[in-house]
Design goal:
Elements (H helix, E strand, L loop, with lengths): L11 E5 L4 H11 L3 E6 L19 H5 L4 E6 L4 H10 L5 E4 L3 H6 L4 H7 L4 E6 L14 H7 L2 H5 L12 H24 L3 E6 H13 L15 H5 L3 E2 L4 E4 L4 H10 L4 H5 L5 H6 L1 H12 L4 H10 L4 E3 L10 H5 L3 E6 L3 E6 L23 H7 L4 H9 L3 E2 L2
Parallel strand pairs: 1-2, 1-4, 2-3, 4-5, 5-6
Antiparallel strand pairs: 3-12, 7-8, 8-9, 10-11
Helix pairs in contact: 1-8, 6-9
């Protein structure tokens, strides 16, 4: 693996997160150069067993969110397990957990306790709901948050809500976690003081969804209905031989489009020069586009739309995403040789840094793969480590 490190080189992270929200966020920290120690129970992160796998505990879904990490299998219910974590906390810059805060405090690792061990610590908690609200103690998963945030209503309708068929809440909250931790680290570099960072799923997704979906309710009192009609009505169009999405984006762009396809009458019929009237007619416009689209093949449309500078894209099937022309040209999907899982495919870190490139330096770890290594770094002797393994305080392959 490459040894180049990203902009967070030298930052050390204790990652006590499971499933997707937290691990996706901490993986990005790792992609950006941070050293991430994934602290797992002896049973392991439940995400290890979700999806398809060659070997139990190493599913493709787990590996997609847990590279650039070392795994320490540790039983925090045992006094010696807690002692291990207390020894590690002063050595790190960031502590991230999605254990519910009340439960973590009962274990002895609430923010105040950890701050005593390390005043410079950035302590990040990935919660389902803000801890100052009535749902603070509730568990949360992607479907719960899509429902409660209004996102499911935006995807479907108020009468028939529908889920995004992707764990979009977990993933966008993971990115929000990465950003929040990075911001807290910048502040710490200025004044030397750590802080508590909370990233709640419901609030994050509600804010995300509100940008366009508040609609008329962005004003008090409301001046119109909630939602964004153009976005809710958009749809792919069928060509002679496939599917395409095309999106003229300005009055001039719409005029150029209708002239190029031989329907200049649509310019006045749908008032496409005026954005307000164009939005009011969007259903009729999309219906007409659908009628026009079937007159050409996808390749013919792509040639025309590229020539007149109208945004467009043909649809990539899930099985063909790695072959999508642009993604293939930028090497978005990389193949790696894992020592036990064979050849694996992953999306590379998408953000680019000119001087400190993000990279994949460590392959996804087996449960407890680095237990001995991390404990030695913390000052434990081989005999002490053997004793901890014997008493099942820690686990190692």
């Amino acid at each position: 693996m490459t040894k180049r490190s990203g902009p967070l080189e030298g930052i050390r992270v204790l990652d006590l997160t499971t499933i997707l929200f937290g691990p996706f966020g901490t993986q990005t920290l790792g992609d950006w150069g941070a050293e991430v120690i994934k602290v797992e129970s002896p049973a392991g992160d439940g995400w290890r067993y979700s999806g398809q796998f060659r070997n139990r505990g190493m599913s493709g879904q787990f590996m997609a969110a847990n590279r650039n990490k070392r795994s320490l299998a540790l039983d925090l219910k045992q006094p010696d397990g807690k002692a291990v974590l207390r020894r590690l906390i002063p050595t790190v810059d960031v502590f991230v957990s999605n254990v519910r805060p009340a439960a973590l405090a009962r274990l002895g690792f609430g923010y105040d306790a950890c701050r005593e061990l390390n005043p410079r610590l950035v302590y990040a908690t990935a919660t389902g709901f803000g801890q100052d609200g009535p749902w603070a103690a509730r568990p949360a998963f992607d479907e719960i948050v899509q429902a409660a945030s209004g996102l499911a209503s935006a995807i479907g309708t108020d009468d028939e809500p529908a889920f995004v068929p992707s764990l979009v809440g977990d993933k966008l909250c993971g990115l929000a976690l990465t950003a929040a931790v990075s911001a807290a680290l910048v502040r710490r570099e200025r004044d030397g003081i750590g802080q508590l960072v909370e990233v709640p799923m419901l609030e994050t997704v509600a804010a995300f969804n509100s940008i366009e979906m508040l609609g008329g309710h962005a004003f008090v009192p409301p001046i119109g209905p909630a939602g964004y009609k153009r976005v809710r009505k958009r749809r792919p169009v069928r060509t002679k031989d496939g599917w395409l999405t095309m999106l003229p984006y300005s009055g001039d762009n719409w005029c150029t489009f209708f002239e190029a396809v031989g329907h200049p009458e649509c310019i006045e019929e749908f008032s496409v020069r005026d954005p307000v009237q164009r939005a009011a007619n969007i259903d009729k416009i999309y219906d007409r586009m659908g009628e026009i689209a079937v007159t050409r093949t996808t390749a013919e449309w792509e040639e025309l739309l590229l020539r007149i500078d109208v945004p467009h894209a043909s649809f990539a099937k899930l099985v063909d995403v790695a072959e999508q022309p642009h993604l293939k040209a930028v090497d978005m999907f990389v193949e790696l040789d894992h020592p036990t899982e064979g050849r694996i495919r992953q999306a590379r870190p998408p953000a680019r840094f000119s001087e400190t490139p993000a990279s994949i330096r460590r392959l996804p770890p087996h449960l407890g793969e680095h237990t001995r290594e991390v404990l030695r770094e913390a000052g434990y002797t081989d005999a002490e480590i053997a004793d901890l393994i014997k008493r099942k305080t820690v686990a190692a392959p």
